[in-house]
Amino acid sequence: MSVEQQFDSNFRYVMVAARRARQLQNGSQPLVASRSGKACKVAQDEIAAGKVGYVKPNAPVLKPEIAAPDIPKFVIA
After folding, report:
1. Residue 71: what pLDDT?
2. Averaged pLDDT, groups of 10, the chain, 77 residues long
3. Helix count and strand count (H, E) for the chain
4. Is 22 helix (H, G, I), strand (E, B) or coil?
5. Could you say which DSSP state residue 27 is in?
6. What's the rounded Cα separation, in Å, for the pair 4 and 47?
7. Which residues, at least 6 apart from 3, have a Cβ–Cβ distance to it below 8 Å?
8. Where are the domains of the chain?
9. How far apart are alpha carbons 3 and 17 in whole angstroms?
10. For 2-59, CATH number?
11. Contact between 39 and 24 (Cβ < 8 Å)
């Protein structure tokens, strides 16, 4: 695994910014000086400065398979 700085989609950018904003709201110290006091904007400033990245796993995350008898069956009349 490696730390990625470039985002391959807007969704990933938003998810990283949201997670960092949550860390800031819970008491984490900002990594850059920002003109804003809002956690969301500070997180965006940190990403723009290259201080925040994400780890992209090498293997794809697969959903666990559910055995056939455990799948609920619904009757539609």
Report:
1. 60
2. 76 92 94 93 93 78 65 61
3. 2, 2
4. helix
5. T
6. 11
7. 53, 54, 55
8. 2-59
9. 15
10. 3.90.940
11. yes
d(CA 42, CA 21): 7
The phi, psi pair for 24, rounded to 5°, reads -65, -40
What is the Cα–Cα distance from 3 to 6, expressed in whole angstroms? 9
pLDDT of residue 55: 82
Integer Rg of the chain from CA:
19
Per-residue confidence (pLDDT) for residue 77, from 0 to 100: 54
Q: What is the pLDDT of residue 75?
A: 61
Contact 15, 9 (CB under 8 A): no
DSSP 44: H
Q: Would you mind telling me the total number of residues written for the chain in this entry?
A: 77
Asked if residue 21 lies in contact with residue 40, where contact means CB atoms within 8 angstroms, the answer is yes
CB 4 within 8 A of CB 16: no
Q: Which amino acid is at 55?
A: V
Q: Which two tokens stand for residue 44?
A: 């965006």
